[in-house]
Design brief:
13-stranded antiparallel beta sheet, 6 helices, Jelly Rolls, alpha+beta, 27% helix, single chain
Length: 278
């Protein structure tokens, strides 16, 4: 079968088997890191020919939405029926029970819920000079009913080198500490806990090549940490960005104030997959 013809169910079997075979190691990795920001890494998640096909299926940047501000600079896509069907299949493969249940067991989180709305998920492309400042993800789903607890990032960038940048940075001791850099390696899955202290960022891309990523979030009826509180996506500057950090603090305070008045925001968040759209 040609890689582009694989279904979400077939892909989910590949993903779940790969995770299952490393379950003990992944459980230890998450357990040892969860006091700060829990995470685990799975390399060579899928057969390389499938991962390459996924990379090749990414749309051109002109067909994606550009998010450019002092907070971030990247291209995103969430209206998946506008793109190559393989992209939708792989995104929803991560949401099938055989995958969700494996990750639930590894992280010891009860009743994980996948997100068919792809709220803040979907696909993203970053290229030369693009970045994502240190931030906390929005604490809830689009209806503010469930807590965001896990962030799944699957990288499909062939021959991506460490010098190419665009790597995930997690900040176990907060943004005044030093980040742990996780290489955006080809065919790598990173699963990261999201809570009130899970600061993370993407360092600047240093190459003209595209850094392509597939993102999913898992939710739960309870937060990971007992002290977690509702918050909007909250940005800060990197330690060397003193002025930008103050601007981003004010920006986050203003947006949080709006959400205290308008529970779901003034307007509907557009970063949601509307499946009745064509």
């Amino acid at each position: 079968m040609q890689p582009q013809n694989w279904s979400r169910h077939q892909l989910a079997v590949l993903i779940s088997e790969k995770i299952k075979n490393q379950k003990n190691r992944l459980s230890v990795q998450f357990e040892q890191s969860k006091e700060s920001i829990g995470y685990f890494i799975v390399d060579e998640l899928m057969p390389s020919e499938i991962a390459i096909a996924i990379h090749n299926a990414f749309p051109k940047k002109k067909n994606m939405k550009l998010n450019k501000s002092i907070r971030e600079w990247k291209y995103i896509g969430v209206q998946m029926n506008l793109y190559n069907p393989l992209l939708e299949e792989v995104i929803y493969a991560f949401q099938l029970p055989e995958v969700v249940n494996q990750i639930q067991d590894i992280c010891n989180i009860k009743k994980l819920k996948a997100d068919p709305n792809l709220y803040a998920g979907g696909i993203s492309t970053m290229t030369k000079d693009q970045f994502l400042n240190p931030h906390l993800d929005n604490s809830h789903d689009k209806d503010r009913k469930n807590w965001r607890v896990l962030n799944l990032l699957y990288y499909v960038n062939p021959k991506w080198k460490e010098s190419d940048g665009g790597h995930l940075e997690i900040w176990p001791k907060g943004i005044l500490g030093k980040p742990l850099t996780i290489h955006a390696k080809f065919n790598r899955l990173v699963v990261m806990a999201t809570h009130n202290h899970s600061w993370h960022s993407v360092c600047k891309v240093m190459t003209d090549s595209s850094r392509n990523c597939i993102s999913n979030y898992y939710f739960s009826s309870t937060p990971l940490n007992n002290g977690d509180k509702f918050h909007v996506t909250t940005f800060r500057g990197w330690p060397h960005q003193k002025i930008k950090n103050q601007v981003l603090r004010l920006d986050s305070t203003l947006r949080m104030g709006i959400r205290k008045i308008f529970r779901k925001g003034i307007t509907e968040n557009p970063h949601v997959y509307k499946k009745n759209n064509t």
